[in-house]
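Go through this fold for my students:
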Amino acid sequence: MGSRFPSHQLSNGLYVSGRPEQPKERAPTMSSVAMPYTGGDIKKSGELGKMFDIPVDGSKSRKSGPITGAPSRTGSFGGAASHSGPIMHNAAARAAYTTSGVVSSGGAGSVSLKKSNSGPLNKHGEPVKKSSGPQSGGVTPSGRQNSGPIPPVLPTTGLITSGPISSGPLNSSGAPRKVSGPLESMGSMKNPASAVIHNQAVTVLSQDDDFSFRKNFPKLILWSLILLFVMGFIAGGFILGAVHNAILLIVVVVLFGAVASFFIWNTCFGRRAIMAYIARYPDAELRNAKNGQFVKISGVVTCGNVPLESSFQRVARCVYTSTSLYEYRGWDSKAANATHRRFSWGLRSLERHAVDFYISDFQSGLRALVKTGYGARVTPYVDDSLVIDANPGAEELSPDFLKWLGERNLSSDDRIMRMKEGYIKEGSTVSVMGVVQRNDNVLMIVPPPEPITTGCQWAKCIFPASLEGIVLRCEDTSKNDVIPV
């Protein structure tokens, strides 16, 4: 019907005047489908089962995503592609997201495809691609709209955890990479002996802390005696040659023999005499002990904050450890140290440490802190619990002994060796000699400011000896029952 006024036909066949109304953009609608009752069977749970790669019943699930292998058709048809929610990595993953997009036909014929998208258009009339957050994956369909970050692929175990999915390196598929071996943050493992030496709470003791008669005997008196005997031998020899009288020489020889016997006696039995002196010293009661009083306390040992471990036997929770290696030097043997004489035993290696510990007094039941760590002066009298004699030329060395030598870069080339190890472990009974110190209701045993002398023991022909620092006395703990603490 001709008219100068524009008109158009509606969908029901009627003609109306005016220009056709432009289609308005409709707001996206959201729909939800009620989940069927599964009865506890995850195979009937639809989309939930697909998230964990569990086969589900095909009659109750909707397939989404690109459709392949569809029957061939002629003509044209339109398809809308809309995406809601996060997009997975691969194209065929997780059917929990509804995607209807381009349909590809595998048959003959010509197919014209049209794709309609809702949303704003650019200046060429094409839909604007909106993307929020990082995207990853193997497929990037055109006209897709994303919102929110894209999560990586869940681990194959399907375990749901809180927090980020991965805090470490990822492999090519996005899953956490398994790393075996030591962690880089832990660093390289250190030698336990070197770690103990650099700990400020550990006191490293040397051979000078052992009993030595030559060290205790006054040097002035020693050199005076040597000078007197040299003069006596010269005078006795002169008189013997001039007058043919040997009385003076005989007197000097007898006196020299007596003095030498005293020296040899004290050198061999001086340590045993000091241990007997410690055993005879009366025990004090901590409850009645005054501040600054020198006392002897006997009781049970309890470890402090830094326990030790013996070097060879690996005895744990010790407060004192000592492992020494000696070598015997023959006529053509190598010396163990710079002062090693022939036909004698010389010290080659020494590992001796002490730390602070607690002692429970037998007399009063009180517990005191014994300050033997942090570089304190300590004089140990601890019996050896292990003595190993090794002769590589006569017998084969044990693997443990060879391993211990290898860890310390010590050779075992045809040397006669002897290892001694002693320790004080938790629960052992010890005797401690030191000065009582009370500080803010804390009872401590600290080293005395001056060495303590034992005095002359004339009945045993023992010269006086000095005891420096805290004195530790412990018998062989391997022969005694340890009190559990």
Summary: The mean pLDDT is 73. DSSP finds six helices and 20 strands in the chain. Residues 214-273 form one domain.
